Amino acid sequence: MRLQDLLSSGLPGSKPEPKSLRRLFLDVSIVTASFPKPAWRLYVRSVTDIADIGATWEMELGATLGRWRDRILDYPPIFDFIRELLDPSRNNIHQIQRDLKFDETRILDIGCGTGRLLVLARDTSVSWVGIDVNRSFVSSLNSILPENASLALMSADAMGFRDMSFDVAIMLDLTHHLSDRQVVTTLQHAKRLAHKRILVVDPIYVAGNPFRKLLCKMDRGSHIRTASELTELVGSAGSIVEQPSIFKSGLHMKCRVSIRFKP
Ligand SMILES: C[S@@+](CC[C@H](N)C(=O)[O-])C[C@H]1O[C@@H](n2cnc3c(N)ncnc32)[C@H](O)[C@@H]1O
Questions:
Q1: Is the CB of residue 172 less than 8 Å from the CB of residue 111?
Q2: How far apart are CA 253 and CA 66, in angstroms?
Q3: Which of 52, 90, 181, 242 is deepest in the core (most CB within 10 A)?
Q4: What is the C-alpha separation between 253 and 82, in angstroms, rounded?
Q5: pTM of this prediction?
Q6: Residues 107, 58 within the same domain
Q7: Count of the separate structural domains present in the chain
Q8: Domain co-membership, 98 together with 176
Q9: Quick one: DSSP state of residue 179?
């Protein structure tokens, strides 16, 4: 197949970089005019150009696949199904429950998703408030809320509740969706809102296991950290890290950090 054919039969929606193409054809004209001296240069440039174009296609293919993954995962039943497969809820709920004290009855669930922590409010006197930025999750959850639970479409780093409205703020599988700066801002909000404690549970990156590495790469959150990076980041927000611990949940390794703020 000729190079030109390869370039024009691009992936749907992808465009080869026009500058590289123009440069390539210019090279071809130069080389035909003064063959054979600059032939090696043509060779080197062509290889670079092909690599450039390949990289552009790879990026565009990655972006297209990412968009499809997001569309599919925004559908709550599919999200729940895949999440249960990779990271069963019972492990996470157990980790959260073992840390909750009996007097912590006002819970803020930051990045509540499809509401797997709603179980904490079912048939209890706990009051549960969930916030999330995903419109599709929030509207599907709205229809199944018990009386002692409520929900808001809101970003973690811009939560508009009154100070001390909660006893405990929980961030389950949220921080890998947030940049370092967003995590710090979210923790500062959480500190203002939840006067007793904050619980952070998140998947962590563990070197050496190629399958887990792939899983981290495919995740929608692009900030999966190591356990020490996560603990350090949480600590840098002016908090006292009480109990960092690592546990296995399905195919993920996770870090659980319980924190309280310095007075
Ligand atoms: C992996 S899901 C976890 C959901 C839920 N906590 C659970 O454990 O099933 C991450 C959630 O964080 C939400 N999220 C991402 N960025 C956010 C932000 N800036 N503010 C609030 N929620 C956010 C996503 O919409 C998604 O629902």
A1: yes
A2: 23
A3: 52
A4: 16
A5: 0.79
A6: no
A7: 2
A8: yes
A9: -
111: Cβ below 6 Å to ligand 1? Answer: yes
**Which segment of 28-37, 173-182, 184-193, 252-261 scores lowest on mean pLDDT?**
28-37
CA distance linking residue 176 with residue 78, whole number of Å:
20
With the most atoms of ligand 1 within 8 angstroms of its CB, the residue from 134, 181, 183 to mutate is 134
259 lines ligand 1 (CB under 6 A): no
Pair 118, 179 in one domain: yes
> Of 73, 97, 116, which residue is a domain's last?
73
Residue 7 has a pLDDT of 41
Let me know how long the chain is: 263
Structure-token pair, residue 186: 């979210």
Task: Indicate if ligand 1 lies below 6 Å from the C-beta of 172.
Answer: yes
Does the beta carbon of 224 lie inside 6 Å of ligand 1? no
Q: How far is the centre of ligand 1, averaged over its atoms, from the C-alpha of 9 (Å)?
A: 39
Q: Is residue 237 lining ligand 1, measured as CB closer than 6 Å?
A: no
